[in-house]
Amino acid sequence: MYERFAHEYAAHAAVSPYNALYDRPAVLGLAGDVRGRTVFDAACGPGLYAAELQERGARVLGCDASPTFVALARERTGGRADLRVHDLAEPLGWVPDGSVDLVVFALAIHYLDDRVAVLEELRRVLAPGGALVLSTEHPMSKWLRLGGSYFDVEPVEESLSEERDWPIRAWRMPLTDICAEFRRAGFLIDEFLEPRPVPEMAESHPDDHELLNQVPAFVAFRLVPRPGC
C-alpha cells in the first residue's frame, strides 16, 4: 500500500509528532535494553525503528513488503542490517526457529487480514525468553474518527493523512478482539501501554500534545509466548 508514496511517507514519519514523539518512544521503551540482542523488525518501513535499535547495540534483521521502504531502511542502517523485501502474509523462510530475541512490529498489524497466522510465525522465530513488542491504532481513536459501533470488526479504506492522498486499507476492531487474537496466536500480554506524548511535544506541537493527553491515538503491547505453545 505504501509503495506509491513511500518517499513522502518516510520524510513525514521521520519528524511527525505521532511517530517521532509518540509511537517510537513507546515502542522502544517497551523493547528495553537491546544491546547484544537479535531483533527482528517486522514491517520495518523506512528503517526508523531499525536504525535506533541498531544504534542501541542490537543486531537487526527484518522485512517490509515495499521495495522502496527496504531500500531506504538499508540506507538508514548503513547496510549493516539484514533487511529484505517480504510480505508478512508469507512465512519467514529465511529466519530459523528460535533465533530472535525480540520482534518489533510497529503500526502495521492492522493492515493484515490473517493476523493470527502472522503472529504465530513471529512466535516461531522467538528464542526462549523472547518477546514481541507491537503497536497499533487505538480502537477508541478509530471509533471516534469513523463512528458506527465501537464493536465493528471490518476492513476500512481511507487516507492515512487528511492532507495527502495516501490510500490505505486497515482493520478496525475492539480491544477485546485484538487481545483475543494475541491469545489465539499463543501469546500473553506482559505489558499494556496507552502511550502519553513525550514532554518535548508540548513545545514543538502543543495542539497534538494536548489532544494525545486526552485521547490515545495508538496502543502498544509487550507480548510473551504462552507456556505450552
UniProtKB/TrEMBL annotation:
What Pfam families is this protein classified in?
Methyltransf_11 (PF08241)
Positions of the Methyltransferase type domain: 41-134
Keywords carried by this UniProt record = Methyltransferase, Transferase
What InterPro entries does the entry give? Diverse_substrate_MTase, Methyltransf_11, SAM-dependent_MTases_sf
CDD domains found in the cross-reference section: AdoMet_MTases
The GO annotation for biological process reads:
methylation
Q: Its Gene Ontology molecular function terms?
A: S-adenosylmethionine-dependent methyltransferase activity
Q: Which family does it belong to?
A: Belongs to the methyltransferase superfamily.
Q: What is this protein called?
A: Class I SAM-dependent methyltransferase
State the species of origin.
Actinomadura montaniterrae
